[in-house]
Amino acid sequence: MIEVAGKRIAVIGLSRTGIATATMLNEHGAKVIASDVKSKEELEKTVNILTEKGIEFELGGHGEKCLACDLLVVSPGVPLELPFFKKAAAKGIPIIGEIELAYHFTKASIIAITGTNGKTTTTRLLGNIMEKSMPGQVKVVGNIGVPMIQEVVGLDSDDWIIAEISSFQLETIKEFRPYISLYLNFTPDHLDRHKTIEGYWEAKRRLFMNQRAGDYAIINDDDPAVIRAAEGCKAWKYLISTSNCIARGVYLKDGQLFIRDKDKTGILKESIISVDDIPLRGRHNVMNTAFAITAAHLAGVDKDDIRQGILNFSAEEHRLQEIAVDDDGTLYIDDSKATNPDAAINALNSFSQPLILIAGGQDRDADFSEFARTVYEKVRVLVLLGETKKKLKEAVLKKGFDNINIHEAVDMKEAVSLAFNELRAGDCLLLSPACPSWDMYLNYKERGREFQREVDLKRGG
Fold it and tell me: Whole-model pTM?
């Protein structure tokens, strides 16, 4: 455990994670300095919380108070290339993140889940399976929206932490060691933060950094970048595939997910669930389910509990969420969480009926060529909005998409109106933006809610 009592510790970045970290450290006797680049006026509610708890703060930037500390704990949203961190490193101040700190304060077994897409769905699904099998012993935390530090204190060795872990969080680990790690997939993302694809990949592969014999690593056998990231990992490896039968792990065959492992009688091979019974759309969610099955199996959950945990699971809002179906079969789907091209491609491949797609958002220099190819193959009408609408239009035209079937909108209201003008019986109206939302919205949830409101109004709800 990291000793914090009596230590002067700066918490950098006062998001939900930063506030939870500062609170925990304060309760454990640390002399906390809470810091953010925003002003006191911008953080009025946060300042009130800190003041009530007697926590000192330094706002409008990170200055001398923070540089006079014994330890810096960085919130995941704070970029490490800030000049402040170079000054701190030059002074020899250790820099860690919140999940590293949390790791040192718990006896619970940790299951850590990363990947470009599917992290939240897999984390929630695994949590659903294990919570029903081990009531009161499971905490679902991390990038899913619940700071890990908020839940770990007081957990015992019989308890489990299921943590969604982002590349931002992995950048600042030192000793963090999951008992079971899951690496779902890899496609380029967050290049505004990591600068290069290799930099993003290097951050992700840190998930395996401290695992050793006796731990487990569950990896995507269909993804060469994931396989490469796991090279040298000392944990016992289990594979996931929807393409090949494998020796140890979960694979798809004849419409069934099979688990294969060794037990006391030799080789265990069992069907866990039919793909048709999985309550989530898309082949990518078959893969997510396979990961959850494997992790639950390794955590000691039996086959029947795994199956029941899958069957009674429902998708989260804004993730291929079915919001309405008309009598003529017209379907309305909110997939606002598709904030990168690969996630949107997965969404497009989840439907067989004609698609009217609303896409576009913040420009983060993503490569849209593969997304454009899938749009050409799957989409009947494309409605574009946000910063990327010109770039997306250019990309799909290059693939041969008909210009007459592309519309540009200034906002979601116009986008939905244009889409409804094109709707035919049996179509699917899909919001799957392939881009972040921050050019027009606070987050993807706000974008999805507006889409749902406008659809409801158009349908006369």
Answer: 0.79
